[in-house]
Write a structure and sequence with these properties.
Strand content of chain A: over 45%
Oligomer: heterodimer
Order of helices and strands of chain A: EEEEEEEEEEE
Radius of gyration of chain A: 13 Å
Number of helices of chain B: 0
Helix content of chain B: under 10%
Distance between the termini of chain B: 34 Å
Number of strands of chain B: 11
Shape of chain A: globular
Largest interface: A-B, 21 and 24 residues
């Protein structure tokens, strides 16, 4: 079945850029998502990219998709302490009609 | 506010007790999902309902049952709770493509 992998932890200094990486196995995925989870809360949809796109920018967020390598990344510019959270990569499976989530990357922003 | 509502927010059960977690969405989404989240495990799909009248098993269905009561409501039942079911449970809904909207979660402890 589909496998989605992320590194578990990332620590950056406030004001720096953060890059969170994700790899997946199913090349037929049509939508790829990034979700954010703050402590004690549910998951919040941050952004998504359609599989025929290479890049999508939304204010401080940039999503890059390399379909050949099945690699997705989320770049957060000018990272703030409020960006500290767990970030989940998720891949939509057309074949089974559901999202497959990675295990999440915990981002810690140091003052 | 429109979205996904889960009840209860917190619950403590004794081993062997039963309970039902409730979920309702008001976005007219066809698909609904139940996940559990455990430390270091990310999100694991328990059951899902691609449309009203259908339900399917996810990765970890053992010990659970679901009911898609109508298009709005999707409940999760634990017939005989076990300590291994101590977790945070999230309900989500979506249309095709995977833009899930999540509830705020139910924190369940089984003692």
């Amino acid at each position: 079945g589909e496998d989605v992998e992320q590194s578990l932890f990332l620590s950056v200094r406030e004001g720096d850029s953060s890059v969170i990486n994700c790899t997946y196995t199913d090349s037929s995925s049509t939508y790829l998502y990034w979700y954010k989870q703050e402590p004690g809360a549910g998951l919040q949809l941050l952004t998504y990219i359609f599989s025929n796109m290479d890049m999508k920018q939304d204010q401080r967020l940039t999503v890059l998709l390399n379909k050949k390598d099945k690699h997705l990344s989320l770049r957060i510019a000018d990272t703030q302490t409020g960006d500290s959270a767990i970030y989940f990569c998720a891949v939509w499976m057309d074949s089974s009609y559901k999202l497959i989530f990675g295990s999440g990357t915990r981002l810690l922003v140091r003052p | 506010n429109a979205g996904v509502t889960q009840t209860p927010k917190f619950q403590v059960l004794k081993t062997g007790q039963s309970m039902t977690l409730q979920c309702a969405q008001d976005m007219n989404h066809n698909s609904m999902y139940w996940y559990r989240q455990d430390p270091g495990m990310g999100l694991r799909l328990i059951y899902y309902s691609a449309s009203e009248g259908t339900t399917d098993k996810g990765e970890v269905p053992n010990g659970y049952n679901v009911s898609r009561l109508n298009k709005r409501e999707f409940s999760l039942r634990l017939e005989s709770a076990a300590p291994s079911q101590t977790s945070v449970y999230f309900c989500a809904s979506s249309e095709a493509g995977g833009g899930y909207t999540f509830g705020s979660g139910t924190r369940l402890t089984v003692v």
